[in-house]
Specification:
This protein is an alpha+beta fold. It is built from six helices and eight strands, in the order βαββαααααβββββ. InterPro entries: HotDog_dom_sf, MaoC-like_dom, NodN-like. It holds the Pfam family MaoC_dehydratas.
């Protein structure tokens, strides 16, 4: 895990692969809870029996936005940002879903620091990301996420 405590340490990482998170298993329980939270109960996500017979995947699949929502959690396994007042999810750019994540698939986040700007003391970090699926050639998604960091002092 990389530890960053200020803008200068962050700046040294621009262009670098920052690492990958541990594997996270997508369970049916997690999919169902996400469906409840977002009111998206489409059968392709929440009905395992119907998915076995009617889905081209023969399985339920995770919501695309569920996989996106894992970014902050998995990111914190890769880099520890110390000395912060606040961190804000600022944006997602050029995101493409390449393939679905089936129930019980394992996923992990791969991150490269694509860019860094100091906006009068607020640090805008752009990360090139991929959500890899274990034993699959194509990622679940790829794109860029943008975080804003407010360091103390």
């Amino acid at each position: 895990m990389i530890v960053i405590s200020n803008f200068q340490e962050f700046e040294q990482q621009v262009g670098n692969d920052l690492g990958v998170s541990s594997w996270h298993t997508i369970t049916q329980d997690q999919i169902n809870k996400f469906a409840d939270a977002t009111l998206d109960h489409q059968w392709i996500h929440t009905d395992p029996e119907r998915a076995k017979t009617e889905s081209p995947f023969k399985s339920t699949i995770a919501h695309g936005y569920l996989t996106l929502s894992l970014i902050p959690h998995l990111w914190k396994e890769i880099v520890k940002i110390d000395n912060l007042k606040m961190e804000i999810n600022y944006g997602i750019e050029n995101l493409r879903f390449a393939q679905p994540v089936l129930v019980d698939n394992e996923v992990r986040l791969k991150v490269k620091l694509a860019g860094l700007l100091n906006l009068r003391g607020v640090i805008k970090a752009t990360m090139a990301i991929e959500l890899e699926i274990k034993d699959q050639r194509k990622p679940a998604f790829s794109g860029e996420v943008v975080f804003l960091y407010h360091f103390i002092g």
